Amino acid sequence: MPYWTGRRVCVTGGAGFLGSYVVEKLKKAGCESVFIPRSRDYDLRKRRAVNKMYGDARPDVVIHLAAIVGGIGPNWQNPGTFIFDNLMMGAQLIDEAKNHKVEKFVTIGTICSYPKLASIPFKEDEIWSGYPDETTAPYGIAKKVLLAQGQAYRKQYGLNSIHLLPVNLYGPRDNFNPATSHVMPALIKKCVDAKREGRNQIVVWGTGNATREFIHAADCARAILLAAEHYDKPEPVNLGTGREIPIRDLVSLIAYHTGFRGEVVWDPTKPDGQPRRCLDTSRAELEFDFRAKISLEEGIKETVSWYLQTL
């Protein structure tokens, strides 16, 4: 019998960007009982709401995607919100998972947890070897605490908790609100807006020298389901493509696919964030046979096309 047949699955954040892909893939995999708690009904920062969610969902598997997220700007401006909300949601969900006899708890962490000057490519065993980049440290630390909590609960209570570390996500349905968006949708919107408004210049934060790695949300969702089915160990697992790109080159690629042919002005008074991001993805391939399939250029083209259709 397929793994998901007959299992009750709760996907926190299931109505969000990555969550929508995870829910789609669960249904295609034969899962007929997917519970998606909405924030208006369940404030997961509060213990009472977490208990109510577990009572209503009665899950065998929890995939915890719900998070307060954003790019460098929102993280820089709201560090207290990013550390408190993400920590409270995850800590209480994990704690109540043991009380409600959850079969599998999947925590989605972040590569913002890695040290600022981590060696390239990032290896999971080095996640505790230094302090995260200051621009996103509160968010990264909150998620790293959940890694430690999951490992502690596995040891003391036997909770089958796993921790996954995806790189920067992108794809259709992403958040294009400039106040809260990540780098990929923010850049796409900048280029599209400039072209539509007849402007021949855009301003981009930083120097353009920092590098980032990106994984399409559909690939990431596939990895999450594979890990939930096949991975049962305490060590965290990177989810990515293993290929980095300088932000300067990323802007050129996005400008090409959006048709923006104007000037790019770099603002070095704004932070670059972590200097480099590139993952060692060998553990995911070894443990549950995951390799990303969607190329960056293919994914950007698809995302730009989707965004243009929403305007």
Descriptive overview:
- It contains 10 helices and 11 strands.
- The protein has 311 residues and is α/β, with parallel strands linked by helices.
- It has a domain at 8-172 and 215-243 and 276-294: NAD(P)-binding Rossmann-like Domain (Rossmann fold), CATH 3.40.50.
- The protein has a 6-stranded parallel sheet, sandwiched between helices.
Q: Quick gist of this model?
A:
The protein has 311 residues and is of the alpha/beta class. The protein has helices spanning 17-28, 47-57, 72-77, 79-99, 137-157, 183-196, 217-230, 247-258, 282-288, 296-310, and strands spanning 8-12, 33-35, 61-64, 104-108, 161-166, 168-170, 201-205, 211-216, 237-239, 244-246, 263-267. Strand 4 (104-108), helix 5 (137-157) and strand 5 form a beta-alpha-beta unit.
Question: Helices, strands, pairings?
Answer:
Elements: E1 8-12, H1 17-28, E2 33-35, H2 47-57, E3 61-64, H3 72-77, H4 79-99, E4 104-108, H5 137-157, E5 161-166, E6 168-170, H6 183-196, E7 201-205, E8 211-216, H7 217-230, E9 237-239, E10 244-246, H8 247-258, E11 263-267, H9 282-288, H10 296-310
Parallel strand pairs: 1-2, 1-3, 3-4, 4-5, 5-9, 6-8, 7-11
Antiparallel strand pairs: 8-10
Descriptors for this entry?
311 residues; alpha/beta; Rossmann fold; six-stranded parallel sheet; three-stranded mixed sheet; 10 helices; globular
